[in-house]
Amino acid sequence: LLSYLPKRRHASAARRGVAVRGGLLEFTASIARNTASLASLDGDAKAERVALIDSDVAEAEALVRRMDLEARSMQNPAAKDPMSAKLREYKTELARLKRDAATAAKAASSARSDRAQLLAGAELDDMHAPTSHSQRER
Q1: CB count, 10 Å around CB of 104?
Q2: pTM of the entire structure?
Q3: Sign of the dihedral defined by the CA atoms of residues 70, 75, 76, 77, in that order
Q4: Residue 24's pLDDT is what?
Q5: Which helix (H) or strand (E) holds 74?
Q6: How confident is the model over 97-133, as pLDDT tens digits?
Q7: Which segments of 38-76 does DSSP mark as H helices, in order?
Q8: CA-CA distance, 119 to 24, in Å (whole number)?
Q9: What are the φ/ψ torsions at residue 130 (nearest 5 degrees)?
């Protein structure tokens, strides 16, 4: 199963399939964990975490695409049908994680832009507010 994995001399197709599913599960766990931790981060750390999530999502999507191509190329329906069902589950889970990550990243970005707007408003007020120097001149 899944010929794009590095083949070991004694590795069977079933072992490679388990390794790929394990890799996909590792990516999905990483995405979920990093998405949950976004709320507690600030500034650059949050931006780095969002980039890490995006990278993990891209890797997981590539892995699912490869698995989908492999499943579509199978000739035996007895092997193809369970693999297709499992792929649907993986795609659904990945879509949910991707949606959750996008929502968390948008909330993080929104909070950052809200803060910037508030600070920009304060700076404008400071620029137009009378200063002690201008008050002394009057």
Answers
A1: 20
A2: 0.64
A3: positive
A4: 87
A5: none
A6: 999 988 888 876 665 555 666 666 555 555 555 566 5
A7: 43-73
A8: 42
A9: -65, 135
Residues 6+ apart with CB under 8 A from 98: 31, 57
Is 83:36 a contact under the CB 8 Å cutoff?
Answer: no
Phi-psi map region of 42: left, alpha, beta (phi>0 left; psi -120 to 50 alpha): beta
3-state helix, strand and coil shares in percent for the chain, rounded to the nearest 5:
85, 0, 15
For residues 129 and 125, give the distance between their C-alpha atoms in angstroms, rounded to a whole number: 6
Phi-psi region of 2 (alpha: psi -120 to 50; beta: other; left: phi over 0): left
Distance CA 76, CA 74 (A): 6
The values of phi and psi at residue 129, to 5°, are -80, 145
The pair of three-digit structure tokens given for residue 81, joined into one six-digit string:
């049908």
